[in-house]
Write a structure and sequence with these properties.
- This protein has one domain: Glycosyltransferase.
- Helix content is 64%, strand content 0%.
- Helix 6 packs parallel to helix 8 and helix 11 runs antiparallel to helix 12.
- The longest helix is centred in the middle third of the chain and has 31 residues.
Length: 321
């Protein structure tokens, strides 16, 4: 291999992991993970046992539910520190991401179906693809990320019905794409300094997605509900009081998704709000996750439980509930 090519590989191998380690905790609106959700280390973990040979994580419900569940588990695995090349869940992540990427159509849409529930799920799945792409500088990863960012910019701009949850995930996708672009700039600078060739990549137009998000957000009135207003406030840069933690506790069994969003918002506020939420909800959420593979009975709520427990694993350090 030519010396210049070796230099390029060395730069990518050294700079990119360092940037990932530095930025991962601050760049994105949420870091997700698995280890706490699965309890103490067990072989095989419940999620490992649940994965099908084609890479998906099956869940009761329609195909949209299965796509969403698999995407959320991928987000959790990446947040836990695994990539396709390394980490405790590298094997599972590779198979799951292959399954997701097989559902990207020629326009960059994931799991496209001509029905109302498709786009919100596609945005979540796109976040998983984006997070995976942020772990590499390979051309194919940049091509996929560029396609899904452009596709969702178009869909957001032209879709008649948009809600705050959809925009919240689109904002996550935009941040991940911007993070990839910033790391690319750093890599270009280092390659120029070393006289090394730059790995080929496709330009990712995250600005177009940001414009679409901002335009649609400007049209959206502040929503009503338990958790929806807090997502809206985050998107417009405001902070208001959250519902009492007792309300979130009531939602834990009935609507784990809503509970996840409230926990996320509590973590962003920190201080007494986060302390109260973590004290009241930590143990109940951890106990909802199956601890042995023989106990696996996943429904879609389990995906949100996995995400919720990450806050306690990474930020509260409550390792012995």
């Amino acid at each position: 291999m030519p010396r210049a090519a070796l230099l390029a590989l060395a730069v990518a191998a050294v700079i990119l992991p360092a940037a990932l380690a530095q930025d991962r905790a601050t760049d994105l609106p949420l870091i997700t993970g698995l280890r706490c959700a699965c309890g103490q280390p067990i072989e095989p973990t419940p999620l490992q046992s649940a994965q099908r040979a084609d890479g998906r994580f099956p869940v009761a419900g329609d195909p949209c539910a299965e796509l969403r569940f698999t995407a959320v588990v991928c987000l959790a695995i990446v947040g836990d520190g695994s990539t396709r090349a390394s980490g405790s869940y590298a094997h599972q992540l590779g198979h799951a991401m292959d399954w997701l990427e097989q559902r990207i159509d020629e326009r960059g849409r994931i799991g496209f179906e001509a029905r109302p529930g498709w786009l919100p799920v596609s945005v979540i799945a796109s976040c998983a693809v984006a997070e995976d792409a942020c772990t590499t500088v390979e051309f194919d990863a940049s091509r996929k990320l560029a396609a899904i960012v452009s596709a969702h910019a178009r869909e957001l701009a032209h879709r008649r019905e948009i809600d705050v949850e959809m925009l919240w995930w689109a904002d996550w996708l935009c941040r991940a794409a911007r993070s990839w672009a910033e790391r690319r700039v750093d890599l270009e600078r280092e390659c120029r300094a070393l006289g090394a060739p730059l790995p080929e990549a496709v330009r990712i137009d995250h600005d177009a997605l940001r414009s679409a998000i901002d335009e649609r957000l400007a049209e959206l009135p502040r929503p009503e509900g338990v958790w929806e207003p807090s997502l809206y406030d985050e998107l417009i840069g405001e902070t208001r009081d959250l519902p009492p933690v007792a309300r979130a506790s009531e939602l834990l069994n009935d609507d784990p998704r809503a509970c996840f969003y409230l926990i996320h918002q509590a973590w962003r506020r920190g201080g007494e709000t986060w302390e109260e939420y973590s004290r009241v909800l930590g143990r109940p959420i951890a106990q909802r996750i199956p601890s042995r593979s023989s106990e696996v009975a996943f429904d879609e709520g389990a995906a949100w439980d996995v995400l919720s427990t990450e806050f306690y694993y990474r930020y509260s350090k409550l390792r012995s509930w």
